[in-house]
Design brief:
It contains ten helices and 18 strands. With 341 residues, it is α+β, with helices and mostly antiparallel strands. It folds into two domains: 175 residues, ph1033 like fold; 147 residues, Trna Endonuclease, Chain: A, domain 1. Strands 1, 2, 3, 4, 5, 8, 9 and 10 form an eight-stranded mixed sheet that branches. Strands 11-12-13-15-17-18 form a six-stranded mixed sheet, with helices on both faces. Strands 6-7 form a two-stranded antiparallel ribbon. The model has no long low-confidence stretch (mean pLDDT 91).
């Protein structure tokens, strides 16, 4: 469904490459908001789907590729040792993982100066470019199709064909499924917005969820990403979904959904924020074959001033979809209800 870049260094990359997995370091539990940080890390990781493509960014070296996800994300607290020249090295304190295998093993990386030094880098590799410029580097960055295509081209140009890589698969010893803490306060609000985001990255494309009330046909989802930087001035789109459908045997991208999340109420200010995101997407993300940019706002409750502002919303002639969530903790489920106005 999608493509992702994971950060590694000179010690962790060879181990992950040779043992067939990716990993993310755990949160610092001495920090005050460590639970929020954990939800943030897991929200990124839960964007992964089996079959997704993985690129590694080895710090100070460049981009490696191309790998394929072969398991859903999980946790495993056991250390993983390298093999061969790296048998004395190990990865510790990185329990958030997924299994991968080489899809196209390209031996030589694309140097950072090459990837980011091109005149069109800000547009062609915008997700990773802006996070680099803004200093918002996270363990995982999700790529949209045009960005994946560009990075793939750069890697194949740097290599004279596909190489061979023998892997020694890592086998999880204490594999556990990832769950988000769905406990709520007296108002029914989740503890952190990132928990709502994480549950959605984990479940938004599943048939048993009721996300279709604001996403439409789930089979049309081409890819999605969370925490998308808007520009150097700041701002991040919580979730963005790209939709494609088949017309006369051709898959056509026809819609982009921009989702704003609040753990509490959606008010008029949230509408103003989304209006700016829609304007940005119209000028920077949408292509000639995309006719619809659909704003969606999800919160515990919808305030009257938000509904009032929606009545006068006139960007792209596409009215916002207002959604309230309700948590069903025992069944690890979040229900969504669309508000009419």
């Amino acid at each position: 469904m999608g493509a992702h870049v994971f950060i590694a260094n000179s010690e962790t990359f060879p181990i992950q490459r040779d043992r067939g997995f990716l990993s993310v370091f755990e949160e610092d539990k001495t920090k005050q908001l460590w639970e929020k940080t954990r939800a943030d890390i897991l929200a990124d990781l839960c964007c992964l789907r089996i079959g997704d493509r993985i690129f590694f960014y080895e710090t100070t070296v460049g981009f490696h590729g191309i790998y394929e996800v072969v398991s859903l994300p999980f946790t495993d607290n056991n250390d993983v040792r390298g093999v061969g020249d790296y048998k004395d090295k190990k990865i510790s304190s990185a329990p958030y993982r997924a299994l991968i295998r080489p899809k196209y093993y390209l031996r030589y990386p694309v140097a950072e100066s090459r990837a980011f030094g091109l005149k069109d880098s800000a547009s062609e590799l915008r997700s990773i470019f802006y996070k680099k410029v803004l200093g918002r580097g996270k363990a995982a960055t999700h790529l949209f199709p045009e960005e994946e295509k560009r990075l793939t081209e750069l890697l194949f140009k740097a290599n004279d064909g596909v190489g061979e890589l023998e892997i020694y698969p890592y086998e999880p010893k204490q594999e556990k499924r990832i769950f988000f803490d769905l406990s709520t306060n007296e108002e029914g609000e989740l503890k952190y917005e990132k928990i709502l985001e994480g549950w959605l990255t984990q479940n938004l494309d599943k048939a048993e969820s009721n996300t279709k009330i604001f996403l439409g046909d789930l089979k049309d989802i081409e890819c999605f990403a969370n925490y998308i930087p808007v520009n150097i001035a700041g701002g991040n789109v919580d979730l963005m979904v790209h939709h494609k459908k088949e017309v006369n045997g051709i898959r056509i991208k026809y819609k982009i959904t921009i989702i704003e999340l609040k753990k509490g109420n959606i008010d008029g200010n949230a509408l103003i924020e989304v209006e700016e995101y829609v304007k940005w997407a119209t000028g920077n993300i949408a292509h000639s074959d995309v006719e619809i940019i659909q704003p969606v706002l999800i919160g515990r409750k919808i305030s009257p001033d938000a509904i009032e502002r929606c009545k006068y919303y006139a960007i792209n002639n596409r009215k916002p979809i207002l959604v309230e969530y309700e948590v069903d903790s025992p069944n690890y489920f979040i229900n969504f209800t669309k508000r009419k106005y």
